[in-house]
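Section 4.2 – Deliverable D4.2 (structural model, holo form)

The reporting period included a commitment to supply a predicted holo structure for the target in complex with iron/sulfur cluster. Inputs used:
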Amino acid sequence: MVEPLVDGHGRRISDLRVSVTDRCNFRCQYCMPTEGLPWLERGEILSFEEIERVVRLMVGMGVTDVRLTGGEPLVRREFTRLVAMLAGVEGLADLALTTNGFLLERDADALVAAGIDRVNVSIDSLQRDRFFQMTRRDSLPQVLRGLEAVARHPEVHPIKVNAVAMRGFTEAEAVPFAEFARSTAFQVRFIEFMPLDGDRSWRPDDVLTGDELRATIHAVHPLEEVPRERSATARIFRFRDGRGEMGFINPVSEPFCDDCNRIRLTAEGKLRTCLFSVGETDLREPLRAGAGDDELRHIVRDAVWRKELKHRVSEPGFRPPPRTMSAIGG
Ligand code: SF4
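Output (structure tokens):
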């Protein structure tokens, strides 16, 4: 194996998030405007073969975990074919999926057969009308059926339910989600609202912190913390009575950049070394210009060396990146 990927701060990169499309069938308030965004043309996004080549190169440089995201990855045609291609990459230890769950009931069996190891499903409310309010889609029953469909595969583990926490909305969801985590095998995690929304309406006051949510839940169902794994994004708490776990991803109130091991590939082939990167490195052009593996590795290594130390969301003068969440993929 060639030299592992290490950034200028000594952090080893082992986790690659791959956005396979910028398109989505939902319009979540914290992500996309009601009218959607101008989509990339088909020729602009990387082909499955190009994605596979980049993943193979990265795995050769020490990447072990790949997470497939979007937009909404399941809207990309023949997506399970890509899953099968990537599952065949030697050295790839974990192939995960983040989805809004709308097409999961249709695709769950094929995704698992193709090689998906872990699934995160985004659900911001367990109440149908509030789910509609947040996503602008009346789809909660379908999403829950999708969750059940993937849960029928014990080899897919863990299955996580991610809820974005927004002040003035999620307070009422805290205890219902805790009870959902206690009565199912799903690990429910709250993610703090980040300044990556398409409407550019994010304000620091909109952030409902993990601490606040945890205190609300703890008052009803006492929690105790589980030691944090290296490079983990979530603080995990188990219920003191042993009935399940909850996670809190607090990028705004408790940044976890010190041991960040993540980089991202956008649907059109831009390498982002941080979720909040302002600059990006184009891989599509050299890929399509016939660059060899050494040249591509050099481009990747150089970009990773310049990876940002941390995000600066809570610092004076912070500027959100030009690219919004749906075109990054989380
Ligand atoms: S904000 Fe950037 S540096 Fe911090 S954890 Fe996220 S990707 Fe890593």
